[in-house]
UniProtKB/TrEMBL annotation:
Organism: marine sediment metagenome
Pfam family, one: Sulfate_transp
Keywords: Membrane, Transmembrane, Transmembrane helix
Example of a GO biological process term: transmembrane transport
Name this polypeptide is given: SLC26A/SulP transporter domain-containing protein
UniProt lineage: unclassified sequences, metagenomes, ecological metagenomes
Residues passing through the membrane, by range: 33-53, 59-78, 85-101, 107-131, 143-167, 187-205, 212-231, 256-275
Amino acid sequence: MSTNIIYKNMSSLFFPFFSWIRDYKIASFRNDFIAGITVAAVLIPQSMAYAMLAGMPPVYGLYAATIPPLIGALWGSLRQLATGPKAIVSLLVLSTLTPLAEPGTAHYIELAFVLSFMVGVLYLGIGLLHLGQLMSFISHSAVKGFTSAVALIIIATQIPHFLGITVSRHEFIFPMLLELVQRLPSAHIPTLVMGLVAFSIIYFIKKYRPNFPSGLLAIVITSFAVVAFQLQDREIAIVGMIPKGLPLLNVPFSDFNTISSLIGPTVVIALVNFAETYSVDKALSAKSKQKVNVDQEFVGQGMANMVGSFFQSYPVGGSFS
């Protein structure tokens, strides 16, 4: 293989955006800008919810939705793929880190950054070694089954928040549900009503206007209700103040023993996350007629997670958002 061919292949792998930036038309900016605003409108409330699902303060969902999407867009192979926080990854982060630290603490948050860096290194290594085709050997049924199970667990873990009930943390889901049933008489009615209002808004908009950002509208309406009627005085939990500005530079670091204990979960998170991302890739590719470069996607997602970890992001992946 000649030096020119090697140089061309390496350039396309490390700087894929050069190929489309040269051909970008200013006339496309208006549509791209509208698409960006639309995605942001959905991503803002979604990312905060996913951060809470991962056991982190909501602001870290915004951080994960700031730098990683930019990096993923520049280094990925599909122009329509959105990179950011995901439900399945958030739950895996929670289950991985809970045995090591109390969710929401500074140590827990720092471990989430380390986990993001490790996932990124694994992705980048797979992409650079051209091992992306190994994804074709992962069972689609297994991924679907895993995703469905995670969806049920997510629903179960969010019911206490929906009812305004505080339950203890359990290693397994059934003891938590049993405790929840025992505490049902102490459900907080104002919180339940607010949850039902938000659920109704999302349900009916999804039914009659599926392309409308129902989650954003639910956030706006319920937030207005909280401010207008001072509902926080009725003990309805609110997100609170969000720190201003962009995420500060942070170097993800931990001791050797902790990093060693995270290797196994890193592989699981990376494979499950990318299997779902790859499914989205194939669906978008079929619609846009763009060819999916699996190795390039690994590089893109690896760069997004690695760079994101230095800007206070936990593991992210590709989605339809």
